[in-house]
Design brief:
330 residues, alpha/beta
Length: 330
């Protein structure tokens, strides 16, 4: 009887959390910059972003990564189109924009791209009292280039980044893919929120069985995400000849969405200077950044799965075999 009561209370708490998300009526204007195609977490983030009506998605920009076939920005863009139009079955969707192909040469010289020009143009509709949220879950090249080309943009946007290992900085994939770009962002005064790797590992890790239970019976979208998880898991997480499914993989990028939806805790910390080795130097400054410290992953996963189910009840997405384009598309 006590177990039933505990389960009831747990379910009630999850319902209350999701209700808290959906109770907000103001839609949040966002642009996403993503290196989709590099691994699996971007696909989850794009799906959540486009299905959660709290987000007013103004556009999604592709980003480069060294693990994506050159020209990487273009390849990632092709995968982005596949995700939105084929996997999610969306014929009407926000603009999809191609980002740059290579990192910056230094922290002062921008590289223009369609994504950079799009971000600058969209930001003109916002102000310091009404900022555009830029979710950055790949290399920072295009966002940094926009700041370098139009320094006034820092008064119209805020940046939410998945990056770094912990509060000391540390090597991390997204940051490593353009250290100079992150230096440019930190050197600017743009409002910056960071979701670090250690918090992602603590809250957003999924074992093989957890991912299977969440996704495998959830229609074409669930089947697609489950196929992506399995392909990545068997290639990079679990050696094929070892009968051990205990290792998990992290859905890193969802930390940015969780923050915007109010499903994190965070604190302010002095804005550091970033060295080329990706460590922080603490400087005497009154400028700050926001550092995410925890994620309410139970509420977030519950909301995500509910949205996937609801979307597929309304939209019939055929179970087609498009072939996987991710993980090093030629």
């Amino acid at each position: 009887m006590r177990l039933i009561f505990v389960c009831f209370i747990h379910a009630l708490m999850l319902f209350a959390g999701v209700a808290r998300i959906n109770a907000q009526t103001t839609r949040i204007p966002v642009i996403l910059s993503t290196d989709v195609g590099n691994e699996i977490d971007d696909q989850w983030a794009i799906t959540y972003l486009l299905l959660q009506s709290r987000f007013n998605v103004l556009g999604i920009m592709s980003a480069h990564a060294p693990t994506i076939a050159a020209p990487a920005g273009h390849t990632s863009y092709r995968i982005l189109v596949d995700v939105v139009e084929n996997r999610l079955g969306m014929r009407k969707h926000p603009p999809l924009i191609e980002g740059g192909d290579v990192p910056l040469n230094d922290a002062k010289t921008p590289i223009s791209s369609p994504a950079v020009r799009f971000l600058i143009a969209q930001s003109k509709n916002f102000s310091s009292e009404n900022r555009l949220t830029v979710l950055m879950i790949g290399a920072a090249t295009d966002v940094a280039s926009a700041i370098l080309l139009d320094p006034t943009i820092i008064d119209r946007i805020r940046v939410v980044q998945m990056g770094f290992t912990n509060e000391k900085g540390g090597e991390e994939f997204n940051v490593a893919n353009d250290v100079h770009a992150v230096q440019a962002i930190l050197d600017s005064n743009v409002p910056l929120v960071i979701g670090p790797g250690d918090v992602c590992r603590a809250s957003l890790s999924l074992t093989y069985d957890q991912a299977k239970n969440m996704l495998s019976a959830r229609g074409s979208i669930g089947s697609w995400l489950w196929e992506e998880y399995q392909a990545w898991y068997f290639r990079y997480v679990k050696p094929l000849r070892v009968n051990d499914f205990s290792k998990s993989w992290v859905i890193w990028d969802d930390i940015t969405l969780a923050y915007v939806l109010g499903l994190t805790t965070q604190h302010m910390t002095p804005r550091p200077r970033l060295h080329d080795n990706m460590t922080f130097e603490q400087v005497n400054t009154d400028r700050v950044i926001t550092w995410i410290t925890t994620v309410d992953e139970k509420t977030m996963w519950s909301d995500f799965l509910k949205l996937v189910d609801t979307y597929q009840r309304i939209h019939k997405i055929p179970m087609r075999n498009y072939g996987r384009l991710t993980f090093g598309m030629p």
